[in-house]
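Table 4 source record.
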Amino acid sequence: MAQHSPSFSAFSPLLQEQALRHWQRLLALAPQYDALPEPTRQTLLTLLGLSDFVADSLIKQPGLLAETLASDALTRAERWPAYEPELAALLAEVADEEALKRILRQFRRSRMLVIAWRELLGESEVEESFIHLTKLADALICGARDWLYAKQCSELGTPMDGDGNPQPLLILGMGKLGGGELNFSSDIDLIFTFPENGYTVGGRRELANQQFFIKLGQRLINALHQPTQDGQVFRVDMRLRPFGDAGPLAISFAAMEDYYQHHGRNWERYAMVKARVLGPQCEHAMALTELLRPFVFRRYIDFGVIDGLRQMKAMIAAEVRRKGLEGNIKLGAGGIREVEFIAQALQLIRGGREPALRVRHLPEALAAIAQGGALEGSQCERLLTAYRFLRRVENILQEIGDQQTQTLPTEDRDRQRLITTLGFTDWDAFMAHLDEEMAAVHQEFVAVVGEEKEAPAHLEQLWLDLWRTELDAAE
């Protein structure tokens, strides 16, 4: 679909009323904005009608609007190269962990505001949002890690290997973070690891490297995950690590290699297709990537992955039915997950023999699949078109209130927000287009992976830990 530019003047009375309510809240805190030029005021009213997140961000930080309007960020399609140096400059002034949390959260909100602004007004494609959300996450996670690492080294000493080389904490970003396609209000799945065991040097007492990195990991999770008056940076999920919640929070490369050689399960191979070492690609990062490759991509053509994927999909379908997840564009038939399963199945089957398939970004994976002939180019193009549409719907749903949701709204106001942003005249027209896209995906899914079957009872526990990665704490 072509990009659409919504406007306040074309809003329904319901959305106009919502926009004006937010506008009055903003003016009560920052009356100077009443003097904004009329075109700017109309743009703001449009955004306030479409997104509670935009409204809440401007109300929580009343100076943020003037700061955003004064910058050139709203007109630049490539802003991410500045994220890391801008955040580093702010963190250089930070003296304690409470200030660290405040800076991280305010930095996130200011950059997320621009991402939502451009996408909601039809000024950016969904791929622009993907790259900026991913790069922002990389900057925030690595910036917090590096600040905390320096602080903890000053308190406890520096972790060293047997030859006296400092040991870093490496972070594997999983899922859409690893694939460079983070959605607007995503949690993040991380795995912590470090190159070699050893002990700290320079502290008051010697501490094993693993203990140092477990403590560092706990502080990092707290800095990102803990809700404060400024909100959260990210919800952090560590359950994809070796042995899940039962395993240590950080392990050495050797322990990680041993785990995947002797205990790694099929679903962990699927998860590892998108795994990426966050931050600069140093020699340790390259060594870790090489260490994991034999587990993910087998040397032979591996048709066994299809059955595992089919069983996982059956478990997900059963849970969708049990929980009544109607209208879920991620987990339902023809949803985002089915596109991912198609790509991952073909990557795992042939990736050991075809290095071009060892990519994390889904559009690149589909291009490599077409190039290798596993699917026709027209099939991959159709899947990519549907995927982009579904991911745009997902992003807009999440930009409404910065909530992690993939479920279509049932309430009239949010339905109007969604179709207004996408440029549909009414809900039925949107649903007809959505059904067409999801039907095309499901047709390809059945052709590649096969029909869903009820999962045999003895498999239920095997796949339950995979399914749990979809649930938040309350669920």
